[in-house]
Amino acid sequence: MNIILLGPPGAGKGTQANLLVEHHGMLQLSTGDMLRETRKADTELGRRVAAVMDAGELVSDEIVSAMIDAKLSDMGDEVGAIFDGYPRTEAQAHSLDDILAKHGRKLHHVIELAVDEDALVDRITGRFTCAKCGEGYHERHKQPAQQGVCDKCGSTEFKRRADDTEETVRTRMNEYRAKTAPILPIYDARGIVQRVDGMAAIDDVTTAIEKVLASA
Ligand code: ADP
Ligand code: ADP
Ligand code: ZN
């Protein structure tokens, strides 16, 4: 099974993708995570990517589509893919069609996480992750069971994203509205979009997604 998790920044794509990986052994393909690896490198590309991300703008379609193609090439055919944060533009949606066809895969569901824009600033400015294993947390909605200790790996080091500021959230939201939301009709026409209430509690969102996956 191959699915897309679609929603604005902070909607809960990464959180839900992680849970699907745990429950179903699927693989999460997050272009955001891939680009955060790229920007670490002291290279011309790394610096360019970092500048675009910190401005809250979108990295070029060619770069991200090439990353997705490469990841799928490394994956076993039997492993399902969760596209998290990709595609984000119409050009990327068309590239994904070509890439999936090339790898003999089909797209089963596009799950739209619907959230109030007002909640996104709170979601993003309160977001932090484990520095060691990457588990996602939130200052108010998802603290580790023991304060300061990662539930997953026991690490006591956490980090925040350079682009998770109130200022960039606005730009990222505008980018979503202008470039990403318009790809929904492409998938709507194929009858594969399922809307899930992303404002519900994390577990309830998971239950709703599980229901979609269990449907035909
Ligand atoms: P969020 O989890 O807040 O939705 P991501 O981690 O998916 O954010 O992406 C962080 C940043 O990386 C984006 O603001 C953008 O600059 C870049 N990025 C990630 N995925 C893509 C993509 N598919 N196309 C273009 N830029 C991307
Ligand atoms: P995205 O990948 O779409 O940008 P994340 O999964 O990183 O979003 O979630 C953004 C922040 O909101 C994280 O700190 C996460 O713990 C928190 N969060 C995710 N889903 C929910 C939810 N349903 N209710 C409250 N907080 C949530
Ligand atoms: Zn951890």
Write structural notes for this entry:
By secondary structure, the protein is α/β, with parallel strands linked by helices. The protein has 9 helices and 8 strands. It has a 5-stranded parallel β-sheet, sandwiched between helices. The longest helix is centred in the C-terminal third of the chain and has 15 residues, at 166-180. The protein is globular and about 45 Å long. The protein binds adenosine-5'-diphosphate (2 copies) and zinc ion. One adenosine-5'-diphosphate binds at residues 9-10, 14, 31-32, 35, 52-53, 56-59, 64, 85-86, 88, 92, 163, 172.
Q: What labels describe this entry?
A:
8 strands; binds adenosine-5'-diphosphate; three-stranded antiparallel beta sheet; 216 residues; 9 helices; binds zinc ion; alpha/beta; five-stranded parallel beta sheet
User: How many beta-strand elements?
Assistant: 8
Q: Tell me the helix content.
A: 40-55%
Q: Spatial order of the strands in the main sheet?
A: 2-3-1-4-8
Which ligands does the model contain, each kind named once? adenosine-5'-diphosphate, zinc ion
Structural class: alpha/beta
Described by the principal axes of the CA atoms, the overall outline is globular
Poorly predicted ranges: none
Biggest β-sheet strands, sense, barrel = 5 strands, parallel
> Counting H and I runs of at least 4 residues, what is the number of helices?
9
How much is the radius of gyration in Å? 17 Å
Can you give the mean pLDDT? 96
N-to-C span: 11 Å
- Tell me the fraction of residues in β-strands, as a range: 15-25%
Please provide the ordered H/E string of secondary-structure elements.
EHEHHHEHEHEEEHHEH
